C-alpha cells in the first residue's frame, strides 16, 4: 500500500541508484530504528551510498545504511552501520525473495521519507545497467534538456 506523494516528507532520494540500475518494481516498507537513530534521520544525517537489502530467514534486512550518531546522544547512541530490519507483509517478502533469487536482481533503497510519524523506504527491485545503457540515458537526458531550452 503506497502512501500519497502529497503526505510524504522526503528525507533522502538515492539518485545514484536510478543511474546505476534499471528499476523494475518498487515497494514501500517500514524500518525498525532505535531512539537516537530517528533523531539523526530527522536531521537528514544518513548515507545510502552502498546500501542494499536482502531476504534472510523470511525477514528483510537492510545492509550498509550509515546513520550518523546523534550529536546530543549519550552512551545509548547506536552503531552507525548496523544491519536494520525492514517491515513488510510476509506475502510481499516472499514475492521479493523470489525475484531476488533470479540472476542479477537486487533490492536497493530508492527513497527515504516520513509518512505521518513513520519512516518509510521505497525499495526497488533492480537490475544493474551496463556502461552503454548509462551513456544512452545521459545522452537522452541531454537531448531532452536541449529541446526544452529551445522551446
Describe the protein's architecture and organization:
With 151 residues, the protein is α+β, with helices and mostly antiparallel strands. The chain has one domain (5-150): Small protein B (Small Protein B, Chain: A). The chain is built from four helices and nine strands. The chain has helices spanning 15-20, 35-42, 90-100, 131-150, and strands at 8-13, 21-31, 46-47, 52-56, 59-63, 66-67, 84-87, 105-115, 118-128. The strands form two sheets. It has a seven-stranded antiparallel β-sheet. Strands 3-6 form a two-stranded antiparallel ribbon. Strand 4 and strand 5 form a beta hairpin. The protein is globular and about 55 Å long. It starts with 7 loop residues before the first strand and ends with a helix.
Give the arrangement of secondary structure elements:
Blueprint: E1 8-13, H1 15-20, E2 21-31, H2 35-42, E3 46-47, E4 52-56, E5 59-63, E6 66-67, E7 84-87, H3 90-100, E8 105-115, E9 118-128, H4 131-150
Kindly list the characteristics that best describe this protein.
seven-stranded antiparallel β-sheet; two-stranded antiparallel ribbon; single chain; 4 helices; alpha+beta; 151 residues
The helix count comes to 4
So, the CATH homologous superfamily? Small protein B
CATH class, anyone? Mainly Beta
Stretches where pLDDT falls below 50 for ≥5 residues?
none
Distance between the termini: 39 Å
From the 3D structure, determine the CATH topology. Small Protein B, Chain: A
The largest sheet is: 7 strands, antiparallel
Helix content: 25-40%
* Major sheet strand order: 1-8-9-2-7-5-4
Which H/E pattern describes the elements? Answer: EHEHEEEEEHEEH
What is the CA-atom radius of gyration, in angstroms? 17 Å
Mean pLDDT: 86
Amino acid at each position: 500500500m503506497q502512501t500519497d506523494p502529497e503526505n510524504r516528507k522526503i528525507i533522502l532520494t538515492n539518485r545514484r541508484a536510478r543511474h546505476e540500475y534499471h528499476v523494475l518494481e518498487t515497494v514501500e516498507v517500514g524500518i525498525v530504528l532505535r531512539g537516537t537513530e530517528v533523531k539523526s534521520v530527522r536531521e537528514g544525517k544518513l548515507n545510502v551510498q552502498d546500501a542494499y537489502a536482502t531476504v534472510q530467514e523470511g525477514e528483510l534486512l537492510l545492509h550498509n545504511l550509515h546513520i550518523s550518531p546523534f550529536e546530543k546522544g549519550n552512551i545509548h547512541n547506536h552503531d552507525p552501520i548496523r544491519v536494520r530490519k525492514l517491515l513488510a507483509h510476509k506475502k510481499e517478502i516472499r514475492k521479493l525473495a523470489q525475484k531476488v533469487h533470479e540472476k542479477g536482481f537486487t533490492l536497493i533503497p530508492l527513497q527515504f521519507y516520513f509518512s505521518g510519524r513513520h519512516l518509510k523506504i521505497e525499495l526497488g527491485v533492480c537490475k544493474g545497467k551496463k556502461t552503454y545503457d548509462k551513456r544512452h540515458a545521459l545522452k537522452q537526458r541531454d537531448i531532452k534538456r536541449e529541446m526544452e531550452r529551445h522551446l
